[in-house]
Amino acid sequence: MSFSRNSFTTKERQKWMSVLSKSSCQELEGAWQGISEKPDYRHLRKPETGIIMVRARAGGSGLRFNFGEMTVTRCTVKTDEGYVGCAYVMGRDHRHAELAALFDALLQNSGYKLKILNMVILKLKESREKRKEEISKKSAATKVDFFTMVRGD
Amino acid sequence: MVATIDLNQMTPGFSDPVFNSQETFRAILGAMAHPGRIVTAGSALDSPHPLNRASAAVCLTLLDFETPLWTDLDSDHMAIGWLRFHCGCPVVQNPSEATFAMITNNDAMPSLNKFKTGNDECPESSTTLIIQTSGLSSMDGKRLSGPGIETFSTLKMEGLTERFWQDRQIQFTMFPLGVDILFTCENTLAALPRTVKVEG
Fold first, then answer.
1. Residue of B4, B5, B6, B7 to mutate when probing chain A, most A C-beta within 10 A
2. Which CATH superfamily groups domain B17-199?
3. Which candidate, B106, B113, B97, places its Cα nearest to that of B160?
4. Whole-angstrom Cα distance, residue B180 to residue B38?
5. Do B11 and A45 touch (CB under 8 A)?
6. pLDDT tens across the length of chain A (153 residues)
7. Do the Cβ atoms of A44 and B12 come within 8 Å?
């Protein structure tokens, strides 16, 4: 395997993959339409939906147990420049997986990388954080404090 | 540790996974039900060297994460990466652990008794062999008879060793244990289930 032309670290890629999978499909579609020079691509693996078993550890360090099943959609594309993009996203949206894979491929290309990191990934990250904040604000308003009354006996 | 798959050399599988695998499944079913009949499979497939199109189509159709595969290719071979990527199948080192076996070099093929032949309770828990041949024809060759064949049929598979046929003869006496075989060549395949008697 050749890593010679890779201009990114695994950590960087994990970060952008995470942002791409957690963004909405509409946002990704908008960002994709905004790219002026889109490369041609073909599917190595067309978008396909399946189930994965999510595993967890009690308290983060306990024994591993099966937490539950989750629907995921995955896709792998190859651009004409030879970059291979992979994506696994939650849910059943095929276009979402395809777009996330396309962005993953573009981000591996140093010619696109900075531009997309600044114009797309940063924006997606911000809007996700905003969404998260709104949700936590909404739930904060419904917060209930539980207390135990001491029985006087 | 499982070797990583090199995606840079990866080529696509079926263009339409659902319909193409149904089509191939139907072809395999037909071949198995009528031993010796030559059917086509994977005609439009771009298979990785050295797999022929029919072998690749059979793998895409039948293999998944529950079917360990044994092959005579080197473990870092591109074709193995292709199979692992598209089928998600585990690749095992020992033929006796495999549900499917892909044989590309018939001269160096292990003896048939090295594969799983099932047991009396579950004779179906055996290995299905996919053997690539350099030619398949029904004009002459071996004389086949048994279930699915009205009188007899003929099938010629090029490039198989005498030792293979001796093994097959011995295994035939072990029925209901034994292996089922699919012979492939380019985009054609024919089946030799364990029920079939081979003469000539």
1. B7
2. Bacterial phosphonate metabolism protein PhnH (3.40.50.11310)
3. B106
4. 16
5. no
6. 444 456 789 999 999 999 999 999 999 999 999 988 889 999 999 999 999 999 999 888 889 999 999 999 999 999 999 999 999 999 999 999 999 999 999 999 988 888 889 889 999 999 999 999 999 999 988 888 887 777 766
7. yes
